[in-house]
Design goal:
Layout (H helix, E strand, L loop, with lengths): L1 H6 L15 H8 L2 H10 L14 H7 L3 H9 L15 H8 L2 H10 L14 H7 L3 H6 L1
Helix pairs in contact: 2-3, 2-4, 4-5, 4-6, 6-7, 6-8
Pfam families: Ank_2 (PF12796), Ank_4 (PF13637)
InterPro entries: Ankyrin_rpt, Ankyrin_rpt-contain_sf
Keywords: ANK repeat
């Protein structure tokens, strides 16, 4: 579908919503690994691009627990431990809010993300896990 849209004039590298949300961010949020790879490798989309709130493709991948997409972004140079939105919201916070235990475990155990880190509103990963009722994530933390 994406390639068809391109054949009709869509420019997937430069398409953005008013808030800066890009095709790559959408693909990461949706967990479409092959589309993410296509956008990065064939179209030259930047893995470090940010929307107006400072959200990156990695944050979008974490928000829905797409660990395979996150690991691909890492292979392209993303440092998940230092990725933060403008508010200080981290990949770990996004994974906790989204309820992906496997992504949370990966970020803590393999990447050394801090479970006590706070965003600008004082929220921690545990608070984000609680806000959406993710007991398994909370118990892990």
């Amino acid at each position: 579908v994406l390639q068809y849209l391109e054949s009709k004039g869509a420019n997937v590298k430069s398409e953005k919503a008013k808030d800066g949300y890009t095709c790559l961010m959408a693909a990461c949020e949706g967990g479409a690994l092959s589309t993410v790879q296509y956008l990065v490798e064939e179209k030259g989309c930047e893995v470090s691009e940010r929307d107006e709130d400072g959200w990156t493709p990695a944050l979008y991948a974490c928000s829905n627990g797409h660990l395979d997409v996150l690991q691909y972004l890492e292979s392209r140079g993303v440092d998940v431990k230092s990725e933060k939105a403008n508010s200080g919201y981290t990949c770990l916070m996004a994974a906790c809010k989204g309820g992906s235990l496997s992504t949370v475990q990966y970020l803590v155990e393999e990447k050394g993300c801090e479970v006590s880190e706070r965003d600008e509103d004082g929220w921690t990963p545990a608070l984000y896990a609680c806000s959406n009722g993710h007991l398994d994530v909370l118990q892990y933390l």
